[in-house]
Write a structure and sequence with these properties.
globular; binds FE2/S2 (inorganic) cluster; 5-stranded mixed sheet; single chain; about 130 residues; about 10% strand; disordered C terminus; alpha+beta
């Protein structure tokens, strides 16, 4: 999992009600079998805090792609995200309906879709059609 931490994600000035360091600590503690790494700006700052869940190598070979999540600012979304990763993540487990509301298009997909994206529900990467 990649957790964006740069100019907006993890920025206490942008989201003062979120303890961003504690969020990262909780994710790492909850997912000891997974690598939870931080990144510089992923170029979708309006969606801060942004996180990307990567498929396992086997799932990637089967066609699964990373799934991007935006506005991960609550314990409820964080808990759903952890549960989905533990269940296998992209290509291995269906995204729960509530968590699906937090899925955002990957930036390259958003750019190629232009103004018609409208939320990009059909154009995002991930589990769709892979299981
Ligand atoms: S700082 Fe996370 S998308 Fe820009």
């Amino acid at each position: 999992m990649t957790v964006c931490r740069d100019c907006c994600c993890g920025n206490a000035a942008k989201h003062p009600s979120v303890d961003h360091n504690a969020q990262l600590d909780r994710l790492r503690a909850a997912l000891p079998a997974h690598r939870v790494r931080t990144s510089l700006c992923l170029d979708v700052c309006d969606e801060a805090n942004v996180m990307v869940v990567h498929p396992s190598p086997a799932a990637r070979r089967e066609g699964a792609r990373p799934v991007w999540f935006g506005l991960v600012l609550s314990d409820a979304v964080e808990d759903d995200l952890v549960a989905w990763v533990r269940a296998g993540g992209p290509g291995a487990a269906e995204i729960p309906a509530m968590l699906d509301l937090s899925v955002i298009p990957a930036p390259a997909v958003a750019r190629s879709a232009g103004a018609d994206l409208g939320g990009g529900r059909d154009q995002r990467p991930g589990l769709r059609g892979s299981s």
